[in-house]
Amino acid sequence: MARQILDFLRAKDGFVSGEDISRELSISRAAVWKHIANLRSIGYSIEAVPHLGYKLLSIPDKLLPEEVSHNLKTKIVGKNIFYYETVTSTMDMAFDLGFNAAPEGTVIFAEHQTNGRGRLGRSWLSPKGKGLYMSLLLRPKFLPQEAPKLTLMAAVSIVEAIKAQTGISAFIKWPNDILIENKKVAGILTEIDSEPDRIKFVNIGIGVNINSIRSLLPDAATSLSAESKKSVCRLELTKDILRFIEKNYLILINDGFDSIREKWKASSSILGRRIKLNYQNREVSGEAQDIDMDGALLLRRDSGFIERVLSGDVIKVN
Amino acid sequence: MARQILDFLRAKDGFVSGEDISRELSISRAAVWKHIANLRSIGYSIEAVPHLGYKLLSIPDKLLPEEVSHNLKTKIVGKNIFYYETVTSTMDMAFDLGFNAAPEGTVIFAEHQTNGRGRLGRSWLSPKGKGLYMSLLLRPKFLPQEAPKLTLMAAVSIVEAIKAQTGISAFIKWPNDILIENKKVAGILTEIDSEPDRIKFVNIGIGVNINSIRSLLPDAATSLSAESKKSVCRLELTKDILRFIEKNYLILINDGFDSIREKWKASSSILGRRIKLNYQNREVSGEAQDIDMDGALLLRRDSGFIERVLSGDVIKVN
Q1: Which residues on chain B are in Cβ contact (under 8 Å) with A194?
Q2: ipTM, 2 decimals?
Q3: Are residues B175 and B229 both part of a single domain?
Q4: Which ranges of the sequence are annotated as binding DNA (chains A, B) (predicted)?
Q5: pLDDT tens for the 318 residues of chain A, in order
Q6: Residues A134/A90, Cβ–Cβ less than 8 Å
Q7: Structural domain that includes position A13
Q8: Which domain-ending residue is among A266, A283, A305?
Q9: Cβ contact (<8 Å) for A195 and B311?
Q10: Cβ distance B125 to B218 under 8 Å?
């Protein structure tokens, strides 16, 4: 009902009378007042003027499901949204939901994570209300070894959403970091629940530094606001990320990996360059030559041997 | 303390006086009596004779941690045991434990599962107290695509334990069924929690029909008691399974897959034979030629093409 009241307020530019709302939604004037009070308590600014009624002045800077859903226009991604002020990690929630038959496209947002995580058990800093901390649950009919494709698909989508919202060209540091001016602005963590021959579900964790203050971030990191020199609308960026992921995911499952791979290559920060990698507890270097059909990196060693690297850490780019 | 009393009773052939127990363990006579009463309530048969003391007559037919641990002599597998009368599935418990940092080798037993599961979401019948329903949590430094090796390692271990306990030669129907006289006596379910380039943990679910009555099992299934025409000690079989798994797991991680693969091939019910497979939603047939270094089946199609099959259902063997 709160959502219907919001939609009603949003539909009008000026004031809406409590009487109109009450009549339209078949609830009492007292109920209207209670819902308005409730909306104010979660951060909506709603003006009330006697004889004129209510007017929506601003929405809270939160990734509330009713705001993310509004005009989202996706068919899968974000049709089912869970929202938390604070969680250990949205990935923990995503696993619970995965085991409990949550549908493909379920999204979990948190304003703050106490134990946000990155690859290989690393942590992800999650200052309250400053970034995007989300997990997306997918159930593709892929083999487990195809999962890297999903990481690359998500990376491409985040780059497209950043471009659309801020005009900034971000680059992908294989396999899962998004960089601006060589500093990390977003990361992707792919976790898989599988049997040897099929994926049961995949959780894609996405962390984006949006309005974090530069000085509070690690040296090698940046935020969208720091790079664009203005605050960035978390809600609109989030909605665009969901939209681009849906578009690219449908391309991936319907048409295959080719066009995602091409987009990915166009945004790569390493292809054609000499890199040093940390991979399976050893250091290897060579030229980052290509991405293969599974999303693995093809590294041309000095010996000429082409090494296929599923995932690793790029520690140096020349 | 109950466990120490049990060990004390087990160490003597005849009666042990309450006074001796009380002195040895530094507890009161009343405490001794309470522990004895408690042991009786969980199924231990303990005789008490005035002036003579206590005598252990029999242990309950349950996979109690104190019984499984007794003389187990493993270093990893089963050092940490969880036991339940009834669970949905030991795999559910294993995932919870995996996420909560349970150590490698943790084992979960249940006397009964309300939602025991097999591959591809199939169910596994779990009559109370008649079979072995367990999950084993491992944390090998493997790539996710190497997980089939663990399924084969477990299959080999179960065949060895069945042979040791009953003298029966069981065979492995690739990838995860154990057969006696072409009927299914045990199954293995491998579930993996991973990132694209590393396994975080693997749960190996093992179901063995031990003392189930033949007429209550599906047509294509059998039990060890039905095949050996006598009841089989669940506890000793279980302990042997844990011991053989430990042995073979250590071989696998220290010396590689070679010798497990050779053992596996020696117990295979399909190698060298013409089979029909259900695989990735299609039917293929050919000769089961070999198992490769990742544990995948190499199927020689009629065209001569060798197809590499990660997992599937053998639906016909000629």
Answers
A1: 144, 191-192, 194
A2: 0.75
A3: yes
A4: 18-37
A5: 788 898 889 888 789 999 999 998 999 999 999 999 999 998 999 999 999 999 999 999 899 998 999 999 999 999 999 999 999 999 999 999 999 899 999 999 999 999 998 887 788 888 899 999 999 999 999 988 889 999 999 999 999 999 999 999 999 988 889 999 989 999 999 999 999 888 999 999 999 999 998 888 888 899 999 999 999 999 999 999 999 999 999 999 999 999 999 999 999 988 999 999 988 788 999 999 999 888 889 999 999 999 988 878 888 888
A6: yes
A7: 2-58
A8: A266
A9: yes
A10: yes
